[in-house]
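To start, an entry.
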Amino acid sequence: MEIVNRWASELDVRLSAYRRMTYSAALALEEIRSLQTSPQGLLRLISDGSLLWLALRPFAICWRSLRRQFRRPYWLATESASDPD
């Protein structure tokens, strides 16, 4: 969060708001996992985070995994990448 806040003046307003929301949701999830900080995490998720973003994470991870199976990453497809053979 500190990095986003520090660079917010240099970033697009929408991008910095989206990053704050995603990092708040991830931080809230970590806080919810602990019994002592779960009320604080739930409050953070409701006020600053996004339940939709959090709910879509498993699908996004699955999609990226499938995409890597069928499409070679750009950094491996360039000439500068070393050949593993």
Observations:
- Helices lie at 2-7, 13-33, 38-47, 51-70, 74-77.
- The mean pLDDT is 88.
- Residues 72 and 78 are 10 Å apart (CA to CA).
